[in-house]
Amino acid sequence: MGLGPLRRPWGLWSWCAGVYVFLYLPMAVMMAFSFNNARRNVVWKGFTFEWYRRLASNHEMLAAFLTSLELAVSAALASLALGVLASYVLVRHPPFRGRKAYTGFINVPMMLPEVVLGVGLLTFFVRANIPLSFPTLVAAHVIFCLPYTTGAIRARLLSLRNANIEEAAMDLGATEWTAFRKVTLPLLRPALLSGGLLAFTMSFEDFVTSFFVAGIGVETLPIRIYSMMKFGITPEVNALATLLLLVTTALLLGQHFLTREKGQR
Amino acid sequence: MAQAPLLELQGIEKSFGPQKVLKGISLQVYPGEFLTFLGPSGCGKTTTLRIIGGFDWPDDGRVFLKGRDVTSEAPYARDVHTVFQHYALFPHYDVFDNTAFGLRIQRRPEAEVRQRVLEALDLVKLSGFESRRIDQLSGGQQQRVALARAIVGRPSLLLLDEPLGALDLKLRRQMQLELKGIQRRLGIAFIYVTHDQEEALTLSDRIAVFNAGEIEQLGGPREIYEKPQSSFVADFIGSANILDGEVLASGHDGTRLMLEGEVEVLFPQNGGSASVPGKKLSVAIRPERIHIHGARPSSPQEGTVCFPAKLLENVYLGASRQFLCSPFPKSGKVLTAVTTDSGAWAGADTASDFREVWVEFRPSDLRILQACVAPSRTTDVA
């Protein structure tokens, strides 16, 4: 390795190993028990796909999963669109009064305790006579997703700012919209991808805010799991968590390879 | 030039906040000419270029392109392309797609696009690089892509904003010649922004010297160099000794001038309105027009003046030699003289500082600077 006579730092290695065990052992146990042929998560009784089979035939769970998926996709897309617009104002627009305050306010939901956001939104919707439903849920999720998408897109736009690339496109005959579509948007892609994935994850796993503003009849996956817990935890939840973990890992790897392949920063 | 101008600027003014960066720029550019905007940074030359390209709008004044008022038109509506200072290539496209961008926006048939892109890349000597990614190219190659992208659509006017600024000296010299060759071959008018006076002299048909938001002088390279009209131009183009002068008398044989209050010369031209006796003015003389002798010349050449000076510095520069000397004990003004090394007097190599030398020049090599009327030297750079 060219490290010369440096001795291997065994102390550091074992410390790292300890941290990883602490982080990932619970998940490993959970994954293992999703294949356990027993009703309780205590002793290993043998291997089975039973819980996956039951999960597949659990219509309420499936419906909740689809609701969460739809919600997360809508929230991610909406917060991306708003994030692009907000970033344009913050980066491209000539400096205006209150720009700093505006930047700060976009980030507030990131630091706000979710309970506060939830209660505030609930009060607002009730007072404004807006029935709690799927749209209010999307609106609530966009609020706490916006800081993440705006942050990613704004950083990317800042790095492109001095490059005159849009001006070059317009110089060669492209209108503002064509320049945006053919030049800026492709260059924003890594930021859209990472910001969008982050928003998707935040929305998909959100419990607190959703719990306040979901209303009756709309049940997201985290809310469904929470209500299942009231009747005792079954390995079905383990099976679900294992599947989600696989999907998340696949998404992360996908993003990694998509952004790397193009060789863009 | 009886031709109709390709581009005409009329009284362009522009302020950024409280700072007025353009104070009434007017000029005409003719088809096929190579015009350079030369000036120090912050003099307004890039802003003028951006106004021509349509990226900035003037506060006052008009821009005419082929006789049409385009002052408030968007960049994409103008038959003008730009080579940006930092190239502004599209990093997500390869060399071919970068070059083809403008043609594809115009929805030209793909066969035509292909043929014209390959021609343009051939012209800038990038054949075979079509499928390279931008980040796989050197700075010089990126420069060529930017040029190919801008000329492939055959604009009638090309704007170049310090296009060679990021290249090293050797590559820059080479690219200068290639640029000039390409410009001649295509017959496209170039407006070229630079702060490098040598580059301007090498390339240009005409040079507009910018200073503090105004054009100080507009003319051919020789005219700008030989007949600078202001102390700024004289100082900025090459180097010049700028001396205070006073008109003593004016007659049919020329104008009698007192330089720095110590040396009297006869300038062999009637200075016109500038030659009222008692009038103070600035005169310039190029370092290469001043000869330094180690001893009093036994037979001074006809039509020269010769006077003693104290040698301050004697610098060997390889092909040439530079002397700094002080012929004016009262004002202490320092004169710079440059000669080829072989043209210096024998023994100059070992001449020590503070010895006495003799300064000789032809008064006809003096230039009276019209812009300067102040009693003392003012190189009015803000």
Question: Please, could you describe this protein's structure?
Answer:
The complex is a heterodimer of chains A (265) and B (382). Chain A has helices at 10-33, 50-56, 59-91, 99-111, 114-127, 134-160, 165-171, 176-204, 208-213, 221-229, 235-261. Chain A is mainly α and 265 residues long. In chain A, helix 2 crosses helix 11, helix 6 crosses helix 8 (176-204) and helix 7 packs antiparallel against helix 8. The longest helix of chain A has 33 residues, at 59-91. Chain B has 382 residues and is α+β, with helices and mostly antiparallel strands. In chain B, the strands form four sheets. Chain B has a six-stranded mixed β-sheet with strand order 6-7-8-3-9-10, sandwiched between helices. In chain B, helix 3 packs across helix 4 (139-151). At the A-B interface, helix 7 and helix 8 of A face strand 6 and helix 2 of B.
Furnish the topology, listing elements before pairings.
The complex is a heterodimer of chains A (265) and B (382).
Chain A lengths: L9 H24 L16 H7 L2 H33 L7 H13 L2 H14 L6 H27 L4 H7 L4 H29 L3 H6 L7 H9 L5 H27 L4
Helix pairs in contact in A: 1-11, 2-11, 3-6, 3-8, 3-10, 4-6, 6-8, 7-8, 8-11
Chain B lengths: L6 E10 L2 E11 L4 E5 L6 H9 L6 E6 L2 E2 L10 E4 L11 H11 L4 H14 L15 H13 L5 E5 L7 H18 L2 E6 L2 H7 L2 E6 L2 E6 L1 H6 L4 H6 L4 E11 L2 E6 L3 E5 L12 E6 L5 E3 L11 E12 L3 E7 L8 E6 L15 E6 L5 E3 L13
Parallel strand pairs in B: 3-8, 3-9, 6-7, 7-8
Antiparallel strand pairs in B: 1-2, 1-4, 4-5, 9-10, 11-12, 11-14, 12-13, 14-20, 15-19, 16-17, 16-19, 17-18
What is the second-level CATH architecture of one domain in chain A? Orthogonal Bundle
Count of alpha and pi helical runs of chain A: 11
Instruction: Calculate the terminal CA-CA distance of chain A, rounded to whole Å.
Output: 28 Å
Instruction: Tally the beta strands of chain A.
Output: 0
Number of helices of chain B: 8
